[in-house]
Amino acid sequence: TNQGFRLWLTSYPSNKFPVAILQNGVKMTNEPPKGLRSNMTGSYLMDPLPKEEFFEACTNPRAFKRYVFNLCFFHAVIQERRLFGPLGWNIRYEFTENDLR
Questions:
Q1: In sequence order, what are the residues at sequence separation of 6 or more whose Cβ sits closer than 8 angstroms to the Cβ of residue 9?
Q2: pLDDT at 33
Q3: Per-residue model confidence (pLDDT) at position 49
Q4: Vertex 46: Cα angle to 44 and 52 (nearest 5)
């Protein structure tokens, strides 16, 4: 064996995969950030968004920046709604004027 050997492995639960390998390995998780602001910050820090060249390559950078913001915001809201389980998606919610404040 080689002491410098490292194996990165991802696995979904499966009856065909040996449990002993998962039990003897070091486990790592990547949790989404908590909260809308931290989720959006995390999205903006992911490659290629921090690079200005990414936006300059577009012929209409102002509209493209708005599109990216809306996409990041939508993604953050979806990530937050997952925390509510079935309540977040299946129960009808009556929006009122106070929801806009």
A1: 21, 25
A2: 65
A3: 81
A4: 65
Question: What's the pTM?
Answer: 0.54
Please state, in angstroms and rounded to a whole number, the distance separating the CA atoms of residues 57 and 48: 12
Contact yes or no for 64/55 (Cβ under 8 A): yes
Residues 6+ apart with CB under 8 A from 82: 88
Give the C-alpha distances (Å, rounded to integers) separating 61 from 51, 58, 64, 68: 13, 5, 5, 10
Q: Where are the alpha helices (DSSP H) in 25-60?
A: 36-45, 52-56
The whole-angstrom separation of Cα 77 and Cα 37 is 10
Q: What share of the chain is helix, strand, coil (3-state, %, to 5)?
A: 50, 0, 50
Residue stretches of the chain with pLDDT short of 50: none
pLDDT for the residue 45: 85
